Amino acid sequence: MTSDTAAIAAATRPAQDLLARRHATLGSHSPLFYETPLELVSGNGVWLTDAQGRTYLDGYNNVPHVGHANPVVADAVNAQLRTINLHTRYLNSRVVEYAEALLATFGDGLQRLFLTNSGSEANELALRVARQHSGNTGVLVSDFSYHGNTTSLAELTTGLQVREPLGAHVRPVRIPDALAADAGERLLEQALAEVDAAIASLQEAGHGVSAFLFDPLFSTEGLLQPPAGYVDGVAARVRAAGGLVIADEVQSGFGRVGSSMWGHQMFGIEPDLVTLGKPMGNGYPVGGVVTTADLLDEFGRNNMYFNTFAGTPVSSAAGLAVLQVMEEEGLMAQAAGVGAHIADRLRPLAAKSTHVGAVRGRGLFFGLDIVEADGTPAPALAKALIEDMKTRGVLISRVGRHDNVLKMRPPMVFTREHADQLLEQLGLALEALEK
Ligand SMILES: Cc1ncc(COP(=O)(O)O)c(C=O)c1O
Which stretches are annotated as coiled coil (predicted)? Predict the structure, then answer.
């Protein structure tokens, strides 16, 4: 068999066989979406094609930020791979060009970069910097969040199943949600009092405060929307206690929120550390920590940080190509425009359905609370909707403490026309729920 005919044979092998082989090698706990898992074989922009030749509109994936199989990224990676690919212990212009281009999108205080290969590595490193700087170990996180898969991140994970118990140095705090049906007038005051209590408890236990780690979109939490004054209020309290502020921009970064390049800019704050991942290399693994000159120098003086695959010319070429396409195609402005259009169309759709509560999100990350007629969360209905959307050719997912918030977070090349297609199918799927 030639390699071509072998590939065709592999692609047409029945899905059940592939699933059995996957279970026999990767095990059955490695998660797969959908009752009948999708075998996707190719992508193009916002479109995905399965092994049977059916195409789907991708309303879910944020890693292919500038579109699936983007030719500019593919060509840049390919050209660099054919030229040279080495770690950062030799001078190479590509990584410096990338650092310059990336840092140009940040505020004046955030002008240094550590490169990593994933969001987990970035958060792990940011926590390490914060611990060393503050001399403390305590961490404040949201009480339903996920920041990565290392041991120290597992110890602060509350938004996904892990065996590790919550670390004694971790205090999860409830993120106040201005969109919740029961959000009272004292929402902000009560939530900040909870933060004060968490800080006091860390200090009493001798951990002190090293960091507040948060996702500006509170996405795992179900796209919660804190009231004005919350995020900056927490940041001020954490800093007063000697800790640092870490914005995890793995989900919210790179123009996703439409109004700004970075999610933390929605709150008018400048964090001490910003962690990056997912969309950074359009699928080529690239992550990073952006920080201040002082913090990077302090860490560098005391630690020899080296990361074999991080900041190679190839990963830098991928990162540069993503920034280039974003700029050339005006994707941040597009996210703002398409996002506003989606929000306008979601509201009447929600008003018509007895099963939709709050309309959530910013830019090209939007969600709907799926609820029972009495307003309680309806995870089974959310799951049914996601399956129905798949049969209608649109991929979406769900998040949140009750797993009932529809999660729609397409590649940034999603246009108004794509949005209208998604919304039309969502409207029909919601109508079907009423019957
Ligand atoms: C907010 C956030 N931070 C960090 C991570 C971890 O990133 P990675 O899977 O690249 O290690 C994720 C992954 O889902 C995430 O959503």
Answer: none
